[in-house]
Each structure stands twice: as C-alpha cells, then as structure tokens.
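Shipment paperwork, digital attachment
Item: protein structure file
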Amino acid sequence: MKPNEHLFRCLDIIKADKTLSEDTLIIMFVEYARLVTEQSRSSEWVYVKDKKPNEYGRYEVYREKCGKQYYETWNNTGWAYNNNDITHWRPIKSPYIR
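Attachment content:
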C-alpha cells in the first residue's frame, strides 16, 4: 500500500468506526501526522562526489561558482550542462501531497 493510500485508509477508518477507543484514535492521528510530515519534507542534498543519481532524469542541483540552484538533466554519465560546477543534487519532489 502506498503512503497516500495508507493516509486515506486511516482517515476512512477514523470516520467510519465511532467505537474506536481514544488511545487507538491518538495512535492513528500520530501515524497520520508522521506520514504527512514525511511526504511534505523536501529531500536532502547529496554531495556529487559521494553518490551519483541512479536513473536518467531532471534533478535540482547546486552550482558552486554562481551560488544558485537549478534544474539539470542527469544523462547516466554526467550532468547535461555545468558538469564541473555542480557540487550537490537532489530529486525534484512536489511540495504537495497528491
């Protein structure tokens, strides 16, 4: 079950079952809050020399010389542009839960 499905299932149970104990409801709300926080948190930066992306695609990168963040394409062998200037990368993650 995907995290989003788990969240919706948790809410459905809370709404449907009026006989749940207060302790059970608290546990469910805590779990719900934990999952929402995990999904909305941005991913951590990865140092280029420590690890390269595993798959082709667009990533958010940090360029050291100009001190800015950009979106750049990883082509499985290197960055499409500014390959020597990129020091950190991270996957692009939507700030909204879908």
